[in-house]
Design goal:
Layout: H1 2-18, H2 22-33, H3 38-44, H4 54-89, H5 107-121, E1 125-126, E2 132-133, H6 135-138, E3 164-165, H7 170-179, E4 184-193, E5 205-215, H8 220-235, E6 240-248, E7 251-260, E8 271-279, H9 281-291, E9 302-309, H10 310-318, H11 331-334
Parallel strand pairs: 1-4
Antiparallel strand pairs: 2-3, 4-5, 5-9, 6-7, 7-8, 8-9
Helix pairs in contact: 1-4, 2-4, 5-10, 7-9
Length: 339
């Protein structure tokens, strides 16, 4: 057994030293220390030795195993270093490097960040709400009558339990007034959902940004000043803003907002971009009834609200001809926009 172990050590060290690469070295390792390797089999033969011979032979077996393991580790490091040097030798350091592709924000995210930054400078805070809403938050609290077309199943995504996917982020305004008292000054960007036929100007899911300001003494002049400042900051100081009377169930008086600016197709025509108005007292009455107090007493507080779609703004601002391009994830399209 002693002669066999000494011979094994010599053969193993010689084969390890002769291995030309890591693959050959692995074959040597398996042949020596693998499950059926020579060193493993030698260890299994220990149980057949006489009791008095086991200590000496066991010590020798340990010495052989230690020597073989050390030789394997040393040769592995040597061959790995040689392989790395050979690979590096194939690299031409004089060749130009490969440029890394740098990603950028989605154009809608870029526009939303710009809009949020402008409103934050005017003291507006971000507010969020759930995409799945109740009819009360989405319609009833906003003075929308039961027979209004927006409440029809042909226009709104209803769930089996009677809830729905919000058709606008005005529901965030309602939830904010439920849980806070004036003064309130918020903006609510987020997804809205409507049963629109998908085409070049419509999506079933789009991004909306709405705002609300409620306090004592809020006037129509505050509304006009806020939105004129916003659009001039967004489109440039040359932007012209006009307000046309309109109707919304939740504001009175209500207005459509038209903007003309060089950034919007040369500034040669008026473009309808948003809706706004003074909060209807009926909305405050719904909130007070829900809260069980008079925190939004229409005789004491007034407010204004506004809203616009980010996709429409982005299409006009960036000259995008088809709204579907925003959701197709085509890198050729997305890479054109600033980060």
């Amino acid at each position: 057994m002693r002669e066999e172990l000494n011979a094994l050590r010599g053969d193993a060290l010689r084969d390890i030293a002769a291995a030309a690469d890591l693959s050959a070295l692995e074959q040597v390792r398996v042949a020596i220390t693998g499950r059926s390797g020579r060193l493993t089999q030698a260890g299994e033969q220990m149980r057949h030795l006489a009791k008095e011979d086991r200590p000496e032979v066991g010590k020798l077996l340990h010495e052989v195993r230690t020597a073989v393991t050390a030789a394997l580790e040393a040769r592995t490091a040597e061959l790995s270093s040689a392989a790395e040097e050979a690979e590096l030798a194939q690299i031409d350091p004089t060749m130009p490097g490969r440029a890394r592709a740098v990603g950028s924000l989605h154009p809608l995210q870029h526009l939303q960040r710009r809009a949020v930054e402008i409103f934050r400078r005017m003291g507006f805070a971000l507010a969020e709400g759930p995409d799945i809403e109740t009819e009360w938050h989405c319609f009833d609290a906003l003075n929308t009558p039961p027979d209004h077309p927006a409440r029809n199943e042909q226009d709104t995504f209803y769930l089996p339990d009677g809830r729905l996917l919000r058709t606008h982020t005005s529901s965030v305004q309602i939830r904010t007034m439920e849980n806070r008292t004036p003064p309130i000054r918020i903006i609510a960007p987020g997804a809205a959902y409507r049963r629109d036929e998908v085409d070049a100007t419509h999506l079933a899911q789009f991004t909306q940004m709405e705002g609300l300001y409620v306090d004592e003494g809020v006037t129509l002049g505050d509304l006009k000043g806020t939105l004129e400042y916003f659009f001039r900051e967004l489109f440039g100081s040359d932007a012209k803003v006009r307000f046309r009377p309109h109707f919304f169930p939740f504001t009175e008086p209500s207005y459509e907002i038209d903007v003309r600016a060089a950034a919007l197709g040369g500034g040669e025509r008026w473009l309808e971009l948003a809706g706004c108005g003074m909060v209807d007292p009926a909305v405050f009455a719904q909130i007070n009834e829900r809260r069980g107090d008079q925190a939004f007493d229409p005789d004491k507080v007034t407010g204004f609200a506004f809203g616009f779609g980010l996709e429409r703004l982005a299409m006009i601002l960036y000259g995008v001809p088809d709204i579907r391009m925003f959701v197709e994830n085509d890198q050729r399209f997305l890479s054109q926009f600033p980060s």
